[in-house]
Amino acid sequence: MKETSDGFVRADQIDLKSLDEQLERHLNKVLTLDRNKRDDGGNLAAAVPPATKVGAATCKKVRQDWEVDPVKLVIKSVIARGTFGTVHRGVYDGQDVAVKLLDWGEEGHRTEAEIASLRAAFTQEVAVWHKLDHPNVTKFIGATMGSSELQIQTENGQICMPSNLCCVVVEYLPGGALKSYLIKNSRRKLAFKVVVQLALDLARGLSYLHSQKIVHRDVKTENMLLDKTRTMKIADFGVARVEASNPNDMTGETGTLGYMAPEVLNGNPYNRKCDVYSFGICLWEIYCCDMPYPDLSFSEVTSAVVRQNLRPEIPRCCPNSLANVMKRCWDANPDKRPEMDEVVSMLEAIDTSKGGGMIPPDQQGGCLCFRRSRGP
């Protein structure tokens, strides 16, 4: 895998509109064109828009090994909306999938040069992502870079999509986001063995990414998904990129406040160790089932983390073995943070048979760390 200092897309620079509105708008265009042709006395064959005819020929072209066949894709209901796109349930070639759609230049909001640049950068990112294969990384199924001939099969029939649409297809994970799972268990907390297992899933996934020279850059519990067996998988590579050989080539505030390493917040050069810092925050969050810095504003968090070495408060009942992992991972000096494969070894060495779970705040009448009934 070639290391490069460019060739990545900043998903936080993509200006998106509601997919539902896009679908309705473009479907109306197709229906209007079809109706006009019928009014002109054309037959059913003539009523097919020229783009559809061209699209049929285009589908015969040789695809990249990561490109999906739109004919095999069925898009269903919306399951998430966000800054970076609209995610739908779907089926691809008989497999349950999640479908993320991005529109890079709907109705002239971007120049052709900007769209071409975004498409080229995203193509490089996809070329890297589709080669990733690990049980703790969400499986990438495929993507399309968009064209004027693209059509998608929906439950209501075939719809012509915007020419700048990008479609990303990944495996569907029914357990939802780790963040939601922690919120559900915020009162009772998680059993210690569950805490360590989730932490190991995340650590192993990040260790694998780093071995492939991939820096995620937005490690947080919202970007981790659970399958039906509660196995956790890293998702959302919207701002991930190949690690640069020179750390000076990786700068800028990329990530989510509360999880961002001091060097990233400060706009300094950084490397994969920014993911290690974020992992430390996630580990605290998994153990406590709570949010870091809930009472501070964004500006207060930034200032305190960088200038006052602020970190989440580790509960007194937290086992030293786990607390030590947190402290080492969120060290202010990136060079002092462990590599993720070392973090995996530290977590694997923790004995979960004797308890060590978090004490719920409404049950302060004695230590509950050794009770086996704690957590799900």
From TrEMBL:
Residues 9-36 form a coiled coil. It is found in: Cytoplasm, Cytosol. SMART domains: S_TKc. It comes from the Eukaryota. InterPro entries: Kinase-like_dom_sf (IPR011009), Prot_kinase_dom (IPR000719), Ser-Thr/Tyr_kinase_cat_dom (IPR001245), Ser/Thr_kinase_AS (IPR008271), Ser/Thr_Kinases-Pseudokinases (IPR051681). CDD domains: STKc_MAP3K-like (cd13999). Its EC number is 2.7.11.1. It catalyses: L-seryl-[protein] + ATP = O-phospho-L-seryl-[protein] + ADP + H(+); L-threonyl-[protein] + ATP = O-phospho-L-threonyl-[protein] + ADP + H(+). Residues 73-350 form the Protein kinase domain. GO terms for molecular function: ATP binding; protein serine/threonine kinase activity; protein tyrosine kinase activity. One of its GO terms (biological process) is regulation of stomatal opening. One of its GO terms (cellular component) is plasma membrane. The keyword Cytoplasm applies. It holds the Pfam family PK_Tyr_Ser-Thr. Its main location: cytoplasm. Keywords: ATP-binding, Coiled coil, Cytoplasm, Kinase, Nucleotide-binding, Phosphoprotein, Serine/threonine-protein kinase, Transferase, Tyrosine-protein kinase. This is non-specific serine/threonine protein kinase. It comes from Erythroxylum novogranatense.
